[in-house]
């Protein structure tokens, strides 16, 4: 891990848990907290400058994803931090902005999740989907589209894959750490 890609903002440096992999091309700035076994892949940009970013254990943030937050204001006194739970897989080139994700979620490649959206546990979001501001996605479903719509309940195999995907990425990041 290069110290040039982990940067302070206003004196606040990202807090990094144990056994994490952060690619040297990823940039983490400011008030960011990573739990254990997190992987941050090439070209991820995470900016915890005007609010906080929290990423749970065994979560993977894949190549080219942008993570950002919404500043506090008189209209929105708390702003919108970015909170990502545990065992979450965020696919390549996603945009997560000031939203909340529970545990065991798969965010398909190129998906966009906007300010104030809440994604409950055990959700699949299809590639290229757009989750509009302040939308709540209920647990146990596949969501697809622009704007996103509830497609159907998750199959048992899909629900099992949510956890397995996180395990796969923990194994992969361990290979990178031991390389």
Structure, explained:
With 179 residues, this protein is mainly beta. It is 12% helix and 37% strand. Strands 1, 2, 4, 6, 8, 9, 11, 12, 14, 15, 17 and 18 form a 12-stranded parallel beta sheet that branches. It is globular, with a radius of gyration of 15 Å. The two termini are 13 Å apart.
List the main descriptive attributes of the protein structure presented here.
mainly beta, transferase, eight-stranded mixed β-sheet, 179 residues, globular, UDP N-Acetylglucosamine Acyltransferase, domain 1, 1 helix
What is the CATH architecture annotation? 3 Solenoid
Quickly give the structural class. mainly beta
- The helix-strand sequence is EEEEEEEEEEEEEEEEEEEEH
Terminal CA distance:
13 Å
Domain unit count: 1
Just give the CATH class.
Mainly Beta
Q: What's the CATH topology name?
A: UDP N-Acetylglucosamine Acyltransferase, domain 1
Question: Helical stretch count?
Answer: 1
Superfamily at the CATH H level?
A: Hexapeptide repeat proteins
- Low-confidence parts lasting 5 or more residues at pLDDT below 50? none
Radius of gyration, in Å, reads 15 Å
Largest sheet: 12 strands, parallel
Estimate the mean pLDDT confidence.
97
What share of the residues lie within helices?
10-25%
How large is the share of residues in beta strands?
A: 35-45%
- Principal-axis shape equals globular
Number of strands: 20
């Amino acid at each position: 891990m290069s110290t040039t890609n982990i940067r302070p903002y206003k004196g606040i440096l990202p807090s990094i848990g144990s056994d994490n992999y952060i690619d040297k091309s990823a940039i983490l700035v400011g008030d960011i907290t990573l739990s254990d076994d997190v992987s941050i892949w090439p070209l991820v940009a995470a900016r915890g400058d005007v609010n906080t970013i929290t990423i749970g254990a065994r979560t993977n943030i894949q190549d080219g994803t942008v993570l950002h937050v919404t500043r506090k204001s008189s209209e929105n006194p708390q702003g919108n931090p970015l909170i990502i739970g545990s065992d979450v897989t965020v696919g390549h080139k996603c945009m997560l902005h000031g939203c909340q994700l529970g545990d065991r979620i798969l965010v398909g490649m190129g998906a966009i999740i906007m300010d104030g959206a809440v994604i409950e546990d055990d959700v699949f979001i299809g590639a290229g989907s757009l989750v509009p501001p302040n939308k709540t996605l209920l647990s146990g479903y596949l969501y697809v589209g622009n704007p996103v719509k509830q497609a159907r309940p998750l199959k048992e195999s899909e629900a099992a894959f949510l956890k397995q995907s996180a395990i796969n990425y923990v194994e992969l990041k361990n290979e990178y750490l031991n390389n």
